[in-house]
Amino acid sequence: SDSPEIKEEVLRRDDTFLTLLKDVYVESRDPPVQVKDGGGEHLPSKQEEKRLTKLGHLEALDVKKVSKGKISLVEALTLLNNHKLQPQIWTAEKIAAEYSLELKEVNSLLEFFIPFTVLEFPKETKKAITSHKPKQLT
């Protein structure tokens, strides 16, 4: 395990090996770099068009620019709420034109996504549950 002969052999300096090591010279060259031609599938074919979002007073909560054909989360909630409150004014056609969307996608959005309605009952109509004594079985 820890024999003194082995320690001495490991720590001993061998001048012949050192002189041979000084004569060693390593030369390294990298192979030439090959450019892979991927056919340009990662490059965009054209610059994506962007539009400014229509957020109003909720501007600080959302992104400032989105791609045409897309909407931000705040815009989606706003247009769904506008359509729910005034469906005769905020029709699918008007929403598609206002937010640069396809009519088919707007119709799907209005059909499948409905914002929640929160109803709060007036305090006078709330009835407290009164405890009653259980019936005794005889």
Automatic annotation (TrEMBL):
<comment type="subunit">
    <text>Binds calmodulin. Interacts with NDUFAF3.</text>
</comment>
<comment type="similarity">
    <text>Belongs to the NDUFAF4 family.</text>
</comment>
<dbReference type="InterPro" id="IPR009622">
    <property type="entry name" value="NDUFAF4"/>
</dbReference>
<dbReference type="Pfam" id="PF06784">
    <property type="entry name" value="UPF0240"/>
</dbReference>
<protein>
    <recommendedName>
        <fullName>NADH dehydrogenase [ubiquinone] 1 alpha subcomplex assembly factor 4</fullName>
    </recommendedName>
</protein>
<dbReference type="GO" id="GO:0032981">
    <property type="term" value="P:mitochondrial respiratory chain complex I assembly"/>
</dbReference>
<dbReference type="GO" id="GO:0005739">
    <property type="term" value="C:mitochondrion"/>
</dbReference>
